Amino acid sequence: MFSKADRYSTIPHIMYLNQNSLKEDILSLKKEKNVTFLAHYYEDGEIQDLADKVGDSFFLAKEGQKSESQIILLAGVVFMAESVKILNPTKKVIVPDLDAGCSLVKESPYEDYLKWRRQHPTGIAVTYINSSAEVKAISDVIVTSSNAAAIIDSIPKDRPILFGPDKNLGSFLSKKLNREMILWPGSCEVHILFSAKKLYELSLQYPKAVVLAHPECDPAVLQYAHVIGSTSRLLEEVEKNPATQFIVATEPGILHQMKKSRHDNVELIEAPQEGSCGCNNCPYMKMNTLEKIKNALLTETPEIKMDSDLINRASISLQRMMDITSGKPVTWPDRFT
Ligand code: 13P
Ligand code: SF4
Hints:
Layout: H1 4-32, E1 35-40, H2 45-50, E2 53-55, H3 57-66, E3 71-75, H4 78-87, E4 92-94, H5 103-106, H6 110-119, E5 124-128, H7 133-137, E6 141-143, H8 148-153, E7 161-164, H9 167-177, E8 182-183, H10 196-205, E9 210-213, H11 219-222, E10 227-228, H12 231-240, E11 245-249, H13 255-260, E12 267-270, H14 290-299, H15 308-325
Parallel strand pairs: 1-2, 1-3, 3-4, 5-6, 5-7, 7-8, 9-10, 9-11, 11-12
Bound molecules: 1,3-dihydroxyacetonephosphate and iron/sulfur cluster.
């Protein structure tokens, strides 16, 4: 029997050993089964460090499409894994947790989106990758926050644009590109909680800090940002900007790579949210754990399964994103049928 004092000194040690053996198991299963392991920047640092590649949603879609491994494991949220499956359908795509959704997917149900789409039949439906496969299948082109501006710029100026499901990203792009858009009223439950008032006060406290924000934040928050961009764009700013203080208005998983990218004592300050909820962690991204990753590798489940008709229909808008971003010419349908 352990005394109380022994228990307190021993349990953290056992947990540490367990975590280490979990990580070793993950690495050896990944190697044995020749799995490509992709992770998003919002995952816990220890998950990011085990992955073959870490990146933003556009990067993960590209890496997934070109992967030659028979099994691809994606630690992120389910729409990201679905995009990989759609772009590389002969591969087995597995995830740690099938419940790792996204509030933007929830806020854009297929039937409602279809009705909206039918109300504007001559419009081009530009859809954020944070959407269901069904919604992608009734869209003309998919975008992420790292490629949206260039893609929208390539759309003929006389075509109306329907943008969804994130209204904040849509209004940011509409102002930036000086282009009118019909916006779907969805938002990210994490990014809308950043407080503009508290961010303003914080920036007065740290007058030299560079304020970085993801475009899913409310426009009132974005007005205080020096740099607005995708997770990879915000990371790039920390890598390249010699400033030593940054206020970061996005999910804090990204701080892991930001810290790793600098060898000096850079100060990364998390932007404050409304109230005192401390809820800037994405609850869906954070459903993924080392235990679930090991289990996914062992059992090769849960697997992303979609019928081939849905894959074919959703691949048109996703492939158009890939083509435009790689400089290939594309054509646009005259109307939605
Ligand atoms: P990125 O494409 O910038 O990685 O963003 C994905 C996302 O879900 C942001 O909340
Ligand atoms: Fe979705 Fe927001 Fe989580 Fe990104 S941070 S996956 S947009 S809920």
